[in-house]
Please model this.
Amino acid sequence: MDLGTVVQILDSTLRLATPLLFACLAGLFSERAGIFDIGLEGKLLISAFFSAAYAHYTGSAWIGLGVGILAAVVFSLIHGIASITFRGNQLISGVALNFLAAGMTVVIAQSWFAQGGRTPSLLGEARFQRLDLPFAQALADVPVLGPVYSQILSGHSVLVYLGLLTVPATWWLLYRSRFGLRLRAVGENPAAVDTAGVSVVRLRYMAVIICGVLCGIGGAYLATSLSAGFVKDMSAGRGFIALAALIFAKWRPWHALGAVLLFGMLEAIANRFPSLDLGLITLPGQFMSALPYILTVVILAGFVGKAIPPRAGGEPYVKER
Amino acid sequence: MSARRLPHWADVTLVPLISLVIAFAISALVILAIGEDPWEATRLMVQGALGSTYGWGYTLYYTTNFLLTGLAVSIAFQARLFNIGGEGQAMLGGLGVALVLLFVPWPNWWTAIVAALFASALFGAAWAAIPGYLQAKRGSHIVITTIMFNFIAFSLLNYLLSHVLRPQGSMDPATARFPNTIRLPRLADILEPIGIEFSRSGPANVMLFVALLACFLAWVMLWRTRLGFSIRAFGQSEPAAHYAGISSVRIIMLAMLISGALAGMMAVNSVMGGPQRLVMNAVEGAGFIGIAVALMGRSHPFGIIPAALLFGFLFQGGSELAIETSIPREMIVIIQALVILFTGALDNMVRAPLTAAYVAIRGRR
Model:
């Protein structure tokens, strides 16, 4: 493997990790507030479709992004109504929303565009363009740091950088702001938060809406940046890999970045080498694509440090009367 | 407080029925929104799924799948375990069916079906055993592990079908066909001797009766045996079951093994009874539809029979709809999602006004 290949793989690692990062941080907000969300996949998908459809209609990727976020937030609110207001089963609600997105996107796409459940290809400004970081050209020839800066870090869509900035922002919000303290508390012990006179319901709705916004950006990135348009089931399990990354990261933002980069790299390697020759054995591509899931099961089994979810996760809060 | 509750009969019939009506009403709105006529769509679905013995042959074939996967989810639900892994367990069940039928020369269909049932149950149960063990012993959340196992099963099957089991010279990832001598009797073969004419092309087969028998046996197990009592007690209250000396590890493991075995057995229908070879999408989402079926049937072995029939009808009717109109097959995924949402997650939204109405009526008397 030469340096060029390594640079190429790292470059696509960053590209492929971005939708995982948005979905993973989305899940982090929701689960830290005590709302399990296995509907990340569905929110990515519904936003991917609506962002691609409106980017196509308006010719602007930014309008597409807005509509995508809106669609994902609507899904988040359904999840919120089911699990916060009506105290329903959060897991079942998540499953339902995944199917709802899988069905809706194809049915609406077929009705609007009649191209077998896809949107037309997005051209020009309907996609997010690559963004060259300052001095990328000038620094390209510096040894080691040059290729890292100009080829790996530079030249992605603006959403990739937004994703990277969301990590410290999430960290700050969770650990340094009053809102974050309350959010974490409501996921561990909602009764205590309630006693302090802070509304559990309001906090949880806020968390669920933030989750929708982040998933919306992730989905829009899939359709208007990573690819050029929506195709059926294009989220391809990324919402579940993000969930895996969240467990891997034990619900912490910086670790989440590490986990999604790892899973992104696995995907990049699997794309680059359909079967990986390690000398003694040859790993088939199918193994590489199953690896994130296998790793998650190993982590969950507690063999590599225990992953303990927020204590009140999945439990509807019933105020004492 | 106890007087402010809905009577049991209303809770098991009215609540799911009203939820279902809401789900269908929203589905009709979706059909209207994409510019089609919901009445016409319903007529086409009824015509396509129930209007001929050809349609029934497919409807009952899908019903068989959903009976077994619905039962699988139900038994896990009774122990308050949410097994989303039916899809993966059924994939592995299909692998068991294919291995036992390809490599052993069975003399006739009924020895073959017994072997296939055993193999599929074994493979399905084994695939459910790992998440079950991790839940019971290490507290890993079963929902997450079963989701992960679905993906792992998909990759495993994809690898085996494209590298190991694919016959030489064939391009598509599938096994060779099973011999015709072990073809399962279809409904036409069964009904003809008693003078009923039935279409020969519908793939509904003898597995329908196996699935119905499984429902009955599941009912006996749940309501007439010590194990069933323990499973239900555990599902109602884990601490209470613990005080009664019921081992949580044992119940979680047994419930998941039975659940996985039932999901796996579904593959006997969809692999041996359908295309007679193992293909990549042999399960066709039946593992997930099992969730909707179990929720609608209130996790009761007899409740899931009408629910499975309804989804069999929707599945076959949906395919007909996709041929006759511009409504794609994915419409039934929307209906499935809405049924899961309203019967599973938003059931309190239906129950609360019903309870209020009930209390008001009773209070007046």
